[in-house]
Amino acid sequence: MQANTCIGIDVWEGQLEMDEAVLKANGVKFISIRINNTVGGHHLDTGFVKQWEEAAAFVRFPYFVYNPWVDGKANFDWLAAHMPSNAKSVAIDIEIAYSGITAAKYAGEVNKFLSFCDGMKWKTIIYTGGGYLGLLSKWPKMDFWWAQYPDPKTYFGDTSTWDGLKDKLTKLDKPFNANLVPGNLKIWQFSGDYLTLPGTIRKIDVNVFYGSDQEMAAYFGMEVINTAPSKVEVPLVDQQPDISNNIPPINENQSKVAPAVVSTDVVPTNLYVFSHAAYWHRPSAGPLVTPTFEMSNMKQVEKMVLIGAGMLPYLQKINANILKGYDKIVAPDWGPTQGFNAKGLLKFNTLIYPGRNVVRILEVATGKDGNKWGRVEGLSAVTPPGPEFNHIDTPQLIHTVYGSNTSWSYFELANSPHVPLLGSPRWVSMEWLVQISLPVKVTITSVSGVKVVSLPGDLTTEIGSKAQNENASILELRIAKGGVWGRIDTGGWIAVRYNDKNPTNWII
């Protein structure tokens, strides 16, 4: 490594398990932890609370992904409500493009946001890269955490140890485009999720801070901690994701390069449908269900969730137009629940439902049984969801119950209820699921055709249309208002599932 520098990593909710003791022993000095996820708007990273506590033996600071779909004050309000009380600094990640505002407006709102942060006496640093300089008409004159990645094969080769990495860093002193940094270069993120090093089993981002250990700690308002880290048992946050209807979802792994106006790249999806194995015949044409489990040390632990009276009005509301839909949910042993216990709590079975439903898998891991398990996106069983959580706009969170038949398929039940996936985090055996494979060629079947929009879920951003019998290739999927949207090869997005109907020949 270069003299007077120190090394650190940044992590997000996809990197839930690390060995902090190994990282510490290998000279990692700081950890930055993503505090928010912008899939559908701000919500707390699933692993943030746990990782924040486990990073207590390091200099630590959160990084916040700025969301241009809302103004600076709204961004600040969310951050202020979730900032750890013992955090003295925060990095502001600016890399999300939004065509709905000008670069000048974007810059103005960021400045407002930063002024609110100043009022909290937080030390702030902007995290961005050269591909994003066009987002703001004028960047604040402040410290920058700069993302620029030297070619991994040329500069890092088969590096697999921290000592080997530090040796390679003796030949790298600054980003290759350091002249573009609009302020003072303070941190260089030189590895873009392509190094797997001791202490983690997944590729991670690695960074260099320009300063000594003591200078780095003082910069972030902390002290150098020499004690070994210890594992803490902190439950994953059980809260509703924020899916504000006017905010389209952002890809989980946002690219570190400037996006093209029309991209023909295929983006893998984390949406799954049910495998053939899930459709075994149930006696008496019972409802199709697939169990999910809690995982303790990656061993399955089956456990129902007890639902209090505060959740019942929500179950009634999402089934208001279904004849006896709520009654079916609370009926003992029909499927979703085992009825009420003696204390009036609803014994909710943690199930997912094969049929024309989709599941979002946030993480895949290997269990103690050697099988693959997927962590299912779900809703809090404690806080009643808002009206934006419904089977139309969030089909991965609210399932419809289907019936089984003898041909390893499904059929629609009369007055079938809508059931939320409560009790996150839950895990499902991946043998029951199949990842949606892209690209998919579709034919428009709707007589009225479909609109092509620039923002999924927002029909006011119409940029064209596709008529009945026209073809398109789906390169990417997002869930947004109205249902499931697909990015097409000619640019823009079309609905592939809208208001619970399929306007193409692709039944999803």
Q: Explain this structure to me?
A:
This protein has 508 residues and is an alpha+beta fold. The protein folds into 3 domains: 5-219, TIM Barrel (Alpha-Beta Barrel); 271-435, no CATH class; 440-498, SH3 type barrels (Roll). The chain has 9 helices and 32 strands. The strands form 10 sheets. An 8-stranded mixed beta barrel has the order 1-2-5-6-7-8-9-10. A hairpin with an 8-residue loop joins strand 28 (450-453) and strand 29. Helix 3 (72-82) packs parallel to helix 4 (103-119). Mean pLDDT is 86; it is low at 232-238 and 242-262.
Strand order of the largest sheet: 1-2-5-6-7-8-9-10
Shape: globular
Report low-confidence residues grouped into runs of 5 or more: 232-238, 242-262
The tally of domains stands at 3
CATH fold type of the largest domain:
TIM Barrel
Looking at CATH, the homologous superfamily of the largest domain is Glycosidases
Number of helices: 9
What structural class do helix, strand and pairing data support?
alpha+beta
Distance between the termini: 51 Å
Q: Give the amount of beta strand, in percent.
A: 25-35%
Instruction: Describe the sheet with the most strands.
Output: 8 strands, mixed, barrel
Helix content: 10-25%
**Average residue-wise pLDDT:** 86
Name of the level-1 CATH class of the largest domain: Alpha Beta
> How many strands appear in the DSSP assignment?
32
Radius of gyration, taken over Cα atoms and rounded to an integer in Å:
24 Å
Gross CATH architecture of the largest domain: Alpha-Beta Barrel
